[in-house]
Hints:
Blueprint: E1 12-13, E2 18-20, E3 64-67, E4 72-76, E5 81-86, E6 95-100, E7 106-111, E8 116-121, E9 126-132, E10 137-144, E11 147-152, E12 157-162, E13 167-173, E14 182-185, E15 193-198, E16 203-208, E17 213-219, E18 226-232, E19 237-242, E20 245-250, E21 255-260, E22 265-268, E23 274-278, E24 282-287, E25 295-300, E26 308-313, E27 316-322, E28 328-333, E29 338-344, E30 356-357, E31 362-364, E32 367-372, E33 377-382, E34 387-393, E35 400-403
Antiparallel strand pairs: 1-2, 2-30, 3-4, 3-35, 4-5, 6-7, 7-8, 8-9, 10-11, 11-12, 12-13, 14-15, 15-16, 16-17, 18-19, 19-20, 20-21, 22-23, 23-24, 24-25, 26-27, 27-28, 28-29, 31-32, 32-33, 33-34
Amino acid sequence: MDRSIGxxxxxxxxxxxxxxxxxxxxxxxxxxxxxxxxxxxxxxNGGNGESGSGEGGEGSAGLAYxxxxxxxxxxxxxxxxxxxxxxxxxxxxxxxxxxxxxxxSQLFVIExxxxxxxxxxxxxxxxxxxxxxxxxxxxxxxxxxxxMWAHSDAEGTFYVIDTENHEVVETVDAGLEGEGHGxxxxxEDFGDVGYGTNVNDPALHVIDLTEYERxxxxxxxxxxxxxxxxxxxxxxxxxxxxxxxxxxxxVETNEVVDELDVAGGMYLTPDEELLGIVGEDEIRFFDATxxxxxxxxxxxxxxxxxxxxxxxxxxxxxxxxANTMNSDAAVVDVDAMEVVDRIGVGDIExxxxxxxxxxxxxxxxxxxxxxxGADGTVAVIDMEARELIEHVPVEDGIDTVQYVPE
Length: 406
């Protein structure tokens, strides 16, 4: 069986939505030699560390943070406009995942150029700390309330950050070979256990979240790697991308019980009954309520779908996905299994030598956001009306956005 890596799965994020060679999966959930773990934190309360534009202290609920190389713009989706910016101390930055804490007080974002995580105070609208981590950071997770787990792809290691003290408290060697782009799957059903993927390892790794160690590995084959992941709480099954297939794992026994002939980004519907898996030019949906994982339908999406966000309205569930090969976002009626709308969201850069393309997206409170790096804008869509609110100008190359819920 071919275990080759899929086009959007393992690439190196370049800004502006383009992926070449291991990440390819910002905003999942999305969707990485050397380095140290000592503390480089310092407050941004004056001097060179001062940040913000003088309008801080107003909170961030209901705003999207758009991360550019020279500015972090705060976007009000209702107005379709930038209402504040963090500029000082932001100098040529590039970003990985951005994650809001469970209590809504902070936003942590991986900054790739010097191997750090920025902690942003959402009430003050300012950078509160810079926390050193290993190089080539892409993904970050919040499996427990007071910790962020940021993954260094160069080391195959998670840096565990205390969200209150802004310090690295532990490192967890998650990969078998000391390197490799990785993700973390956690859920309240798992208790203190998490599952790690790594593009270099043909296995799903079992991680003790309290002891900070890899305790076991569920072998999926002899070669290749793992990447995207999802969990269906109704059937107790984990889904793990392995090369060009998806392995299905019973988390009670940690045994592989099935295999699906599809690979790609995985997105569970709001009712947790269907799992959408995004392929090259289609989205395939599987039953996530039974042990059989039967396919229930598929939708062809012209232009190449990517990150999938759902909206549950009075008339059903709709999926919104920004395309990588054109300037549209497609709207999918999940009940009817068809594309019902296309909305212009601006363009990403497509270098001639690019092997893979990626386009991130996030949603919240009825808004859908996707960056258009080639245009220097962030598209804001009203998901209920299925209409564009605005292409908000931010900065050329913009490719990371996160929304702070009301």
